[in-house]
Amino acid sequence: MREPNESFAWKERFQLDPDVAFLNHGSFGACPKPVFAEYQRIQRELELQPVRFLGREFRDRMAAARTALAEYVGADADDLVYVPNTTTGLNMAAQSIALRPGDEVLATDHEYGALDRMWRFLCQKAGAHYVRAPISVPILSAEHVVEEVWSHITDRTRVLFISHITSPTALILPIQPLIERARDAGITTVVDGAHAPGQISLNLDELGADIYSGNCHKWMLAPKGSGFLHVRRGIQCMIDPLVVSWGWESDEPSGSQFVDYHEWQGTRDISAFLAVPTAIDFMQNNDWTSVRSRCHTLLSEFVPQWLEATGEDALASLSPKWLAQMATIAIPTSRWEAFKAALYDGYGVEAPTIWWNDRTLLRISVNAYNDRADLERLTAALHELIPQFREEASA
Ligand SMILES: Cc1ncc(COP(=O)(O)O)c(C=O)c1O
Question: How far is the CA of 249 from the centre of ligand 1 (A)?
Answer without folding.
Answer: 32
